[in-house]
Amino acid sequence: MKEKTKIVVYGAAGRMGGNVVREVIKGGKFELSGAVEASDHSKIGEDMGSLLGIGEAGLMLAGSLSEVKTHPDVLVDFTNPKAAIRALDWCVENKTRFITGTTGFDEEELTGIEDAGNKIAVLRSSNMSIGVNVLFELSGKLAKMLPEADIEILEKHHRNKVDSPSGTALQLGKIIAESRGDEFQKVAVFGRHGKAEKRDSKEIGIHSIRAGEIIGDHSIMFSLPYENLVVSHQALSRNAFTYGVMKAIEFIMSRTVGYYTMSNIFDD
Hints:
The protein is of the alpha/beta class.
């Protein structure tokens, strides 16, 4: 009988990490070999199933990857940039596949993540939703089809989201700029407070809303003479991201080395 893929979740007590743990436990397709949080987390040592309200799972929330006793096939990370890089280093050392949905990495960290793909299989995405990754594909194609359009990106998230703009909005902007042959940092405009000059035709406006319990909304407006084309994605549940993570796990298990994004899943 084929063994189940073993998963360790890093950031297991967070919103997304907890959802992934819940799906792994309840879904039965994969085996949870570890659930890890920051060493000073208040719930360290408690049963993960009980923490998630799904009954005892027999696996305690750990405060370090060194506490994971069963070697995992895949580490799924939803933490913060510094913690994610530590987890990546652990994965390289332990020959474990690495999936991260963490956002807010700087350029040096992003380069390090890509370089790690020379040693292990790595998949990074600013958004694990299947629909959002279709939006990524569409955004570049539409930008090429509509070179004269003014482009504005609007993203909305819950009041507790730390980074702004969202990693998804930034990725959309980068894809659009690249498709037009522009350098993103030179054409991106983040809000317009204090900007007392006419809009440049190459600008990509990026705007953020933080309010309530919004899970994640992203829209792109392509403004043309006499008409607007708006494409958007709305997450109705965090399960949309969890579903994408499960697809990412299936994909990365067919790889032993390389750097990937969610778009590669569509190529299979």
